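QA checklist item 7 of 12: single-chain prediction sanity check.
[x] sequence parsed
[x] length recorded as 233
[x] structure emitted
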Amino acid sequence: MTEYPLDSGCSSCTIRTHPLFRHLSEEELQDISLNKITETHKRGSIIYREGSRMKGFYCVHSGIVKIYKTGFDGKEQIVRFAKPADLIGYRSVVSNEPACTTAEILQEATLCHIPTDILLHLVKTNGEFAVALMKLTCKELGEANAYITDIAQKTVKERLAEILIHLDWEFGTDDLGILNISLTREELSNIVGTATESIIRLLSEFKNEGALELNGRKIKILDKPGLKYIANI
């Protein structure tokens, strides 16, 4: 874990264009810069665990963070992935409740930890910030409701196709057309909500149908319209 000096100010950060931060004054941004802690974490590092008390929230500067809940059988259920400019842990801070998820580094990431009192002060004193935070919370709630509907109404094959399309939209591809996020078969199963064996079988099926090109964890989508049709998008 590498800690960076605090002189990397929020005013010059590209993430300042985030709907939440663009409502902040230079003075408010300076206050965050002086109180935040910026650290880089390796893959597999745990940022916070489900049930732990939060002392602040995190802004993702670079990398990818996996957010998941743990079932009674110990199996992970991946809720979402956080990428640059995303915020994690803020709902537990606002509600003053233990963390409802675990955050684990999927791809080496630099995170800025912003203390609880900074967030609560901004909510109380900056109306535009408070409204933007409420909109962000509602957006994530809407995504959670959509996921619950998919789990209840779509087949595993439909859900996997939808997840692949979503990952392509969310993270994009490299020059070779390969998804910019690398996931194990188990991690894919933990997103879709099924057994790893089912994911392996369905990926092979998609490959044989010409929809995907697979090379280990690397996935290249060859037929987006076909996957969208399968996913009923």
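[x] summary fact logged: The chain has two domains: 2-141, 154-231.
[ ] second reviewer sign-off
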